[in-house]
User: Fold these one by one.
Assistant:
Number 1:
Amino acid sequence: MTSEPGSKPAGTIDMDAEHITTSTRDPQELAARLEQWLADTLPGGSDPLITEVTSPEGNGMSSETLLFTARWNDGGRPSDHRLVARIEPPSTAYPVFTTYDLDMQFKVMRLVQEHTSVPVPETLWYESDPAVLGAPFFVMARVDGLVPPDVLPYTFGDNWVFDGSDADRQAIQESAIRAMSGIHSITPEHHDLSFLELGGPGASSLERSFHHWSAYHDWVVGDAPSPLLEECFAWLVDNFPVDVSSDAVSWGDGRIGNMMFRDNEVVAVLDWEMAAVAPPEVDLGWMCYLHLFFQDLAVQLGAPGLPDMFRPSDVRESYAKASGRTPGDLTWHIAYAAIRHGVIMRRVTERSIFFGEAARPDDIDDLILHRSTLSGMLDGSYWSGIGL
């Protein structure tokens, strides 16, 4: 089914994508508190001053982000530092996830930085005391680069990814896959990854991942179950894969919208709140599906999109070349990504309803923006033409 250009996909609710609430805190108030915290954290006489405070818009609806410049005396000379603070969202702001383990995120970023060539922003401080900003936070160095936009998605046109050449987009894709491969070079055999292990039942990391997301699904739907999502999770159980690679660090939210680029090369890998231990296929399925999600939206709205990017067969081939390991079939993992994303999208949409940015639909499954995709995955009609 197709739609007229500029209309919304059939069966979804009206939501103003350009005005989504991502923070309920006052950036200037946060900056004043951060300035005092820096004065207590840095050596005496540093006299920090925070300026150029902004909260970025466009990508991300989970941890809050504050961009700022901090000047302090370093060895008797003033020096400027362009920094980023990632702050746990308040429980009153209808958070997307149940918990935000910023200590884990800080540790995994530092692990990747120390043991791979994958570009990760320099991690500076982690603060666990919620009294400082109202929640735990960490501070990292800021990296300059271009991020493929989520709002509107890069597949819709009028942005640097879409406007580039085929060779440019190929370079973006290959660089992203190399970064993913580098992250997966950190394995339980050579590193202590106990802080990334998911709890709960399951004999394998993939089983524990599934149960973790099943519990998240239960939390999201509460006493208003989704017939579609229930069917999706049953499908995952019935089709559970066996051809998976050995465990590694899983980035969790591995997609180009969480990367910064310069000259089509990755210069920063961002957003680690979904990190865990899992087979690499989990990340690869997520990388493929999050592009398919934006591509499907573009096509539904009458735009051509970017159909040649992140085709699963290409991703598997490039990943095997970069890592020396051929991943298993990605079909289940793409469905796993789409279904997990369906749960997240339901929560995100309900959050928009909470803030008055969307109206509650009559059909509970219309809270899932890509419900037609999930239905097509279940009946098999979706899989032809996506490049498996």
Number 2:
Amino acid sequence: MTRGSSNPALTQSKNPRSKKAKASTVKGPFVNYEAGIDFLNSRINLEQIHASKIKPESFKLDRMHALVKELGDPHLAVPTVHIAGSKGKGSTCTMLESCLRASGYTTGLFTSPHLIDERERIQINNQLVDKDRFIDALAKCKDAASAIANDQGQASYFELLTAAAFVVFAEEAVDIVILETGLGGRLDCTNVARPIVVGLTDIQLEHTDVLGDTLKLIATEKAGIIKPNTKAISVPQPDEVIEVFRNTATDTGATLEVLGDDILYSCRFQSATTKGPHPKVCVGSGEGCFEHMSVPLMGEHQGANCALALAIILELRTHGFDLPEQQIIAGLEHTPRDGRLEQINERPRVYIDGAHTPDSVRETLKAISQQIRYDSLIVVFGCSADKKIDGMIEELTTRADKVVFTKASSNARAVDPKSLSEMYTERSTKSSEAYGTPTEAIRAAGKSLGANDALLILGSFYLAGEVKALFQAKHAKAHS
């Protein structure tokens, strides 16, 4: 779903910097990088609004179509792979980008959300777009948005970022763009793209206030990115989801292939001398297929995401992309782990993960227990109020030896840590504490960490990003 809104009630920014940003709506470039960020943050950002308060009529593609037209249709300048799904789409995008880059192609990657810096969402060859290029593209989008505002209303935070990504990738003439949807698919503002391949990751019940309260309804929204005369590839899904995908492909004039049904696929978890326990996948058949490929991201659930990336690579070969197996192996091996059981400190061992649903929390806890050796696992947890909190708390009782609850200062929807702790103690006799800031929570957790223990920050990308920034600052100070 596009994160923009024509709803007047939603277009009023409560950002304290909005007055400064209004001065930046003057046509032309921003005076500096900070002014550009101020302007961006003055726009309505549906990522920071409780899902129950977002109106379905807030989502439409008319404004995004008008915006990219005003910009000269930069989204059509470069071949694109478009990925949608409930879980795993960011991981799939990252693995795919790394393989393409290792094969010698200049890649453009658009993902969300970011952990620390907005420019994480717009990357070229695994590098954040530089600040000058970013605000130059954003200024062009600002002016284009202003030109259509009378007819279409104010462009949103996510629409402007998406348009800026299209501008950057077109101007830099990247070889291929990997584009992750924001919310949903059918009405997501990334859906102005005309991809050469579409990828569909695991469909789960999420954002039900916006996307619908059944798998079929959610699958219908995700399937909206399937385009005519395009190959769409899906991970294994429940029958009701596959039925929606196949019907959409037929109605659209596209081709759908499903891993395990139409494409040979297997995944097994094994231990290796050099890499330790991890999943391996086989994808495709005949010459050029991929056999026994090591999955670079931790967790059995990443097997299907890796297989989807490899299946997309098989399809890209039919479009003329030269993607040799040895380069693909190298690309997988060097896949960035940003926010996906990413280790941010060596001693003590500290990991962050953006898991924020019961299923993803369960898979993350399972993955760390399978692939990392430790004596005790201490979890620092914080989440948003519109998530399935009961389910996540229940998962924490099964594998964490101690939980410290907190909240990200940047998350207006964050749940009070004391409330989370009370919910936890109703279900578990294990130790828990609550602190108002991540800094306090990390310090408290550190007092309980033994030499062979592990600390995991979990429950929110906001929290993961804030903790990562804290450790980056700590490391920078130590080396200054």
Number 3:
Amino acid sequence: MVLNTFYCPCPRGLETILAQELTQLGAQYPEIRESGVTCQGDWAIALRINLESRLASRVLWQIAQGTYRNEHDLYHHARKLPWSDWFNCELTLKIDTRAHHSPLRSLDFVTLRIKDAICDHFRESTGQRPSIDTREPDMRIHLFLDENRFYLSLDTSGEALFKRGQRPAPGSTPLKRNLAAGILSLSGWQPGTPLLDAFCGSGSLLLEAAEQSLGRAPGMDRSFAFAHIKVCPSATLWPILQQQAHQRQQPPHPLPLWGFDIKGDAIDLARQNLDAAGLGDCVTLKQVNVLESSPPVPEGLMISNLPYGVRLGELHELANFYPLLGNTLKQRYAGWTACLLSADMTLPKALRLKVSRRTPVFNGALECRLFRIPLVSGSHRHKTAIPL
């Protein structure tokens, strides 16, 4: 069996659990990198990761790597690759260039030289050249540069995997779905465990939990770029993988999942997104201030992406809100465990609650912590005795 090398990027902080997921899906030799994991496998593995992975952002097929000194070197490395053996000239292209400590001054110029190399290859081998489409290309080529090495890859996914083939309701700014899946995994949540998102917003965490509970493969209802790669036998492999995934999927039904939000607009957005995914009957939504809420069942997990302030007034409001939230959790949610995502590193002190675990996670470029807080009645903090 010929093994290909694939690189699967993911949100920072999820690399370890992504490596575990890739191993469960059958990938070999996973190696953790910053913001991703490399692994090896045949084409069936690449298709299975695209279909089943909840944590990866893409599946990139590594086609070349080596050393470089300048843009001229990169052009010649790319120029000699058999691009026409991999995809047709009629497809539109986009080159995505990223770098870390690269000595080259202009990534735009590097991107232009890679584009020239690909077009020159096609012009010589077919007499035609592919077109560039930076918005909705058929094929994406990824170039990564470090201090002296380059890595060229073909994107087997197309649209990012966290898009799940669904469009969020207009006006929503949801967590990316693979980050939501990572938060669920890091929290220890399992399908069947009662879950409450007390700040549900547009519902990303609830969508992800509902799909996992029903056994839905995240890539079931979308298309992929691997269908355009000539050496990938997707025509025979993909229907088999789809059928296997479809057979284990459950029909929608009520689940122990609840979403609260103080804003009616947010509840409406969450409902629209759940309905669009066919999951409207799976989740109970309620417009309520968490400070006035009660747990829907005696025990469960509260998993939420807490609001965070940008402007000074918002920060002041949160400074007043957090102690009230801590009191509510102690007094009303004893028996539950809270897993709260926040960019505020002082959150536990503000809540006046004891944290059992702090897991670093990045929401885009924003460094956050997932705070795990077992909730018991009364305060965790010892009060100083007042002498009589």
Number 4:
Amino acid sequence: MTGPSSAPPAPTHLAQLRASGHVQRSVKGEVRANLLARMARGEERFPGIVGFDDTVLPHLERALLAGHDLVLLGERGQGKTRLIRTLVGLLDEWTPVVAGCEINDHPYAPVCARCRRLAAEHGEALPVAWRHRSERYGEKLATPDTSVGDLIGDIDPVKVAEGRTLGDPETVHYGLVPRSNRGVFAVNELPDLAERIQVALLNVLEERDIQVRGYQLRLPLDLLLVASANPEDYTNRGRIITPLKDRFGAEIRTHYPLRLTDEVDLVRQEATLVAHVPRHLLEIVARFTRMVRESPAVDTRSGVSARFAVAAAETIAASALRRAAMTGEDPAIARVCDLPAAVPTLRGKVEFEASEEGREEEVLTHLLRRAVAEEFRVRLGGTDLSGLLARFAAGATVETGDLVPASELLARLGPVEGLSALLDRLGEPEDLADPAQEPGHAAAAGLTQGHAAAGLTQGHAAAGLTQGHAAAGLTQGHAAAGVELALEGLYLTRKLSKDEVPGRTVYGGGA
């Protein structure tokens, strides 16, 4: 929900509003008209939503065009709340309200007792204020302690103490639902709401009014009501009562990203990465996440949230930043050696089957290795790695680890035939700033002035990087990241041996 992009309209009282030609529309009418306009212009309707274009969004658009209240049903971490919050962007940017009204009455048709009284007193001079669409959204996380007063309203003892009688409608303190009048109201995790509290929403969805204790109130609420819920076969804490479910116009199932590219795009969008994480590592994280979701060791009813992949990517980036801080590596670029750091972080984000108790980290570690092996096959399966294998044919070893900088790893490895082709296969489209160059690099490496101008340093040459690589922003860190994927892939395909101790990995010898 973004802030205003323009100033509110000029009218400040009812006569000016009528003279401006303003036409009153219902909330669902606004949403329908603005959705149709965006469709006609080919604009994005639900910004920030990834992977739902061909599945969830068409159903959602039909529900909104039909004017339905709706339930989004899906496992945790599928973006239900994010999707609901984008609906506010389909409202008009500014809408008029009676100034000071608690429930946002429209000046043309006030419904609460206060605003009707003011309209009778002021007539065409009724004060008008303007509300931005970002202020027309209400949300409540359903919790067992939620009361009818929270959602609908209750008697305000302060107003009674001020001298009003208990029969005066103005003694009512309105709850979240009426305060979201003429906007969008969302109930997250609706089945967690006690059944007796769900009953209070029946009139809101059908008769479009509310009841507060013994008051003869009939407020014709104008709102779009949206709820989210987990599938009932998993959410044993409660259910949506049948009469309430019947009153929702549409039930829409959400899902986790169906394509690997969508999973990667989602991580890129949501993760706050403190270091550069190459594309192939993000793909490993995405593959890892999908394997965890499909694993028989994991309770599939609970789901594996998109936050799992986001947390993994952030932890991997943090591991790279830690290495850079302790070794002086610049820039900080994540490598395969940073992947294991994510496993302990992620353990609490997965619900395992009871039979796997005590083996949680073992299961995650195994699935992570499978993800690395699959990425290796997809990215480097057809690449000639004989030059790299030849380096170890005579029994040589190369040590790496989460505190070994890229320059040291490449120096230990030495020149490797075919490294340039390996990096081309991995590809790294993002542009990074060229590393700072030290005087004498170009001359010492026998590089021309043109090479130096392109950012090609001695370190680039030693790493097998071409002038094109340097111009594209590739660094020794990228070369080391590519080398580690190749080394780990060769080990996982039984072409190379590996010894591990905490913080250190030694590759070497044929398997």
